[in-house]
Amino acid sequence: MGVVLARVDQRLIHGLIVNQWAQALQIKRFMVIDDEVSQNEDIKASMRMSKPAGTGMSIINTEKAIHNFQNGNYDAQRVIVLVKEPAKLIELLDAGISIPKVNLGIIFAQDGRTPLTKFIALNDQEKKDIREIQSKGVPVAIQYIPTDPEVDVSKYL
User: Fold this and answer.
1) What is the biggest distance separating any 2 CA atoms in the chain, rounded to whole angstroms?
2) 71 pLDDT above the threshold of 90
3) Whole-model pTM above 0.90?
4) Are 86 and 129 in contact (CB under 8 A)?
């Protein structure tokens, strides 16, 4: 199966992902792709504690993620990809990784970002990156929890 959803969320792994998204999507692997976090053993250890029994978790850098996907390591699993910024998803798409849908979670109003919604703020580059993801045929929606209605991000761009 591979990737069933990619989510841009600065918190990466947290309660809503583990308790609601994973159940709604029947996730078997949490894939955190972040070049900095993948090098921090303390953060990785705390993230792994949230992993539900019967699921896998990978906290890896972009290069390793692309390599593993291209080798088919996750083809038989239902994977949720978690990244902090949309540019990371462009790297995956450009490498030929199939992403059926992108969901925007929490993106904090800091570092020059302008609030779009209660939970999402984007800077100009992130808006451009989202448009590029959409231009590759991948829908991008705002949906905080699985029971919320999906809202096409184009409404805010």
Assistant:
1) 40
2) yes
3) yes
4) yes
